[in-house]
Amino acid sequence: MQILYDAADALFExxxxxxxxxxxxxxxDDEKFREYLFEKARxxxxxxxxxxxxxxxLIEFTNYCKNDCYYCGIRRSNKNALRYxxxxxxxxxxxxxxxxxxxxxxxxxxxxxPFYTDELICEIVREIRSGFPDCAITLSIGEKPRExxxxxxxxxxxxxxxxxxxxxxxxxxxxxxPELSLENRVRCLRDLKDLxxxxxxxxxxxxxxxxLENIVEDLRFIKDFSPHMIGIGPFIPHTDTPFASERAGSLxxxxxxxxxxxxxxxxxxxxATTALGTINPRGRELGVLxxxxxxxxxxxxxxxxxxxxxxxxxxxxxxxxxECRGCLARRMESIGYELSVSRGDYPC
Length: 348
Ligand code: 5AD
Ligand code: FES
Known about the structure:
Blueprint: H1 2-14, H2 19-27, H3 31-49, E1 52-55, E2 57-62, H4 88-101, E3 105-110, H5 118-131, E4 136-140, H6 146-155, E5 159-161, H7 169-175, H8 182-194, E6 198-205, H9 212-225, E7 229-234, H10 251-264, H11 274-279, H12 283-289, E8 294-295, H13 302-305, H14 321-334, E9 338-340
Parallel strand pairs: 1-8, 1-9, 2-3, 3-4, 4-5, 5-6, 6-7
Helix pairs in contact: 1-2, 1-3, 2-9, 2-10, 3-10, 4-5, 5-6
Bound molecules: 5'-deoxyadenosine (5AD) and FE2/S2 (inorganic) cluster (FES).
């Protein structure tokens, strides 16, 4: 038991421990120890960010996707998905509404949808950039050639989210069809960083076939890659996918991993994700109490929200943007935090 506490202390002091120690920490189901770990991670987050929680307005602008990832509800083979696309004007309206509500970062997320050519994406980015010059623009639209990323950057995009999903090639192959490769995913992440984006990677906790050893590999990769943002959330099965009858990831392990990731990457921007809020009604609050410092409420028009269904029972699909913002503000206040009206960049 002392080994665990020593590992937590070492993580706090030196942001690193051996793979064996990481494995012991993430294997522990001792509640007292977990509380100790969360307390350490939380104090590290407060040191860097105070009691402010950064917000990002998430605009899910298309659920068409040319990919067929086995875990994802908007995979191309899901014939039950009701597909939609937002127009440029609809996206700009979401931004305008978000701006009024205090959002200073917009995250444009979608499936890999060839309808949005690089030209169209750049046009959208340029218009957001000129209409909302004090806001950060984040893209989350998957794997692209380096030239496309360069064009998005040139157009004014600041950040890019692309979860690596798992750094183990075998595991990667069990989550994705053969035409997708871990190698290309990592190439994308490196290109993005090289082009000056603030970059986010991350993975699902409890995805099918994932082992604790795999997770240690992910923690090591993240530490080495040193991204600006790290998104993790529980895997949740979607009825219309090959993983429909797999088990969801656990709240406890997700929280432990948020804490470990905070301790290993003290200044990283770490969201308490919607998936975490979906598996537990207080998931996002618990995420913040374990070291997360970002929330990403939904700004998509209510009419399309249910359709952006990556997994079953996703929360916030019936609420207006203002309701979600208000709800999250209250939730954060209930645990002694407040939402920040700022871009919330990676601290220099
Ligand atoms: N459960 C939880 N997260 C999922 N994602 C995709 N499908 C699921 C699911 N079934 C995550 C992936 C992706 C991000 C946009 O959403 O990690 O990168
Ligand atoms: Fe959307 Fe609570 S955050 S309803």
